[in-house]
């Protein structure tokens, strides 16, 4: 019970590292939520990503004499809960309240900050059922450090015009409030031009996602992720086969393109996988996008000790073209 109480009170935000048998880091992140079950009582604390300890409000000004909206965009000065920031880092939220006068916006901001500066605690009690004498269980929900890109606003009002997409991504990461992402040395240069100026109080993650979606000047897809040692990676979608799986292999071993075994916990998304014993005799395609024996891994779910689920998707250049035009999608 002492261990459960420690996790419940102090576990939010803890750094979690997973190693394999060779002590290589296969995943690292932080505790986002903790749940404790003891007897008939369940207590959950978190999510950390819902905490707001730096808050400001965007609103449209109104004329208080006749309560009509003037429509001028205004924003309050950000306020901070430094006690919460010392415990969990700076987690910034931008609120929108529509039409308001400055005094009302300030009251809403103060109330929101007070009620959201610490992780929420919820409780559930179920009496009259079995389980009252059962032991204590702890469930820890974690997220990768990529999610810290959702915790701060990115504005840049010094430089106008356009800059390289890769330069903007580096600038967005450099503006982080908590120095969570440790390195940008693995961000590959991409010279496609994107707007440098930002002054709309958009969350950094949303701006970064827009930049990544644009691809490059040839409309190739680009990928962004935060992996081992909290390093940021930004590079063009690969065209080579990196993983091999023989469907008739009873051991279901994943191999590299040179035949070395790859354990399921080391499989990453954003790679090409080929099934060489599927559609045997088909002429090989030079482009894996056109080969039905190839799968581009969009997401990976690993379940200890040997479970692995991979999902693939269609890869095209259309999404990059639409993103450059500021369009979300197209229908037929």
Report on the structure:
With 332 residues, the chain is α+β, with helices and mostly antiparallel strands. It folds into four domains: 2-48 and 120-145, no CATH class; 52-116; 156-219; 241-312, no CATH class. It is built from six helices and 22 strands. The protein has a six-stranded mixed sheet with strand order 19-18-17-20-21-22, with no helix packed on it.
Order of strands across the main sheet: 19-18-17-20-21-22
Morphology call? globular
Mean pLDDT: 91
In the residues, how many domains can be counted? 4
Q: Structural class given helices, strands, pairing? A: alpha+beta
What is the end-to-end distance? Answer: 58 Å
Radius of gyration: 24 Å
Helical element count?
A: 6
Q: How helix-rich are the residues, as a percent range?
A: 10-25%
Number of strands: 22
* Strand content bin: 35-45%
Instruction: Note the quaternary state here.
Output: single chain
Which sheet architecture does the biggest sheet show? 6 strands, mixed
Low-confidence stretches: none
